[in-house]
Amino acid sequence: MALTKDFKDTVQARARRDPVFRKALLQEGVECLLEGDIGTGKAVLRDYINATIGFEALSSAFDKSSKSLMRMFGPKGNPQAGNLFAVIRYLQEREGVRLEVKARRVADRGDVSSRSSSNHVGGSGIPGQRGVQLSKVDVIGVPRRKIARLPEGVKT
């Protein structure tokens, strides 16, 4: 179901006035991507971009057209990993946060549901084999500063 314009406006207004909500929006977008929910992750990041710097400013930072970047985060967009992670890095630095993914070891119980879970990495799928489960993304505040080193092709 498509979101209504009023709902999108409400999300954007809240993100503009509430830094905690804004950081949570960025965090949620990255978590969705890591969990394999690419469509939702791109949609949340698109909302974050629209509510913060906008695609025009992002396009000048990356020397790409705003339409190209909008397509990248659109429902049919298929961004290259390098481009996606460069944008995420740039958004983190602009927001003054660093997102960290923490992993923890979990025992594989040998049932199909735990082996096929999208947040399991490693392990052979053999009962009793240990794997790694990704935990939530942690947001760590960092002092706001001028972006020191941007990915290749990105200008401030």
Distance between the termini: 37 Å
Query: How helix-rich are the residues, as a percent range?
Result: 40-55%
Proportion of residues in β-strands = 15-25%
- Describe the strand arrangement of the main beta sheet, using strand numbers: 1-3-2
Q: What are the segments in which pLDDT stays under 50 over at least 5 consecutive residues?
A: 111-129, 144-149
Largest sheet: 3 strands, antiparallel
From the spread of the alpha carbons, the general shape counts as: globular
Radius of gyration: 17 Å
Number of strands: 3
List the helices and strands in order.
HHHHHHEHEE
Number of helices: 7
Helix-strand category: alpha+beta
Mean pLDDT: 77
What can you see in these coordinates?
This protein has 156 residues and is an alpha+beta fold. Helix content is 50%, strand content 16%. A three-stranded antiparallel beta sheet has the order 1-3-2. α1 crosses α2, α1 (5-17) crosses α3 and α2 (19-34) runs antiparallel to α3. The longest helix has 16 residues, at 19-34. The protein starts with a helix and ends in a 15-residue tail after the last strand.
SSE topology sketch:
Elements: H1 5-17, H2 19-34, H3 38-51, H4 54-62, H5 66-72, H6 81-95, E1 97-107, H7 112-115, E2 120-121, E3 130-141
Key structural traits:
156 residues, alpha+beta, 3-stranded antiparallel β-sheet, 50% helix
Could you write a compact summary of the structure shown?
This protein has 156 residues and is α+β, with helices and mostly antiparallel strands. Helix content is 50%, strand content 16%.
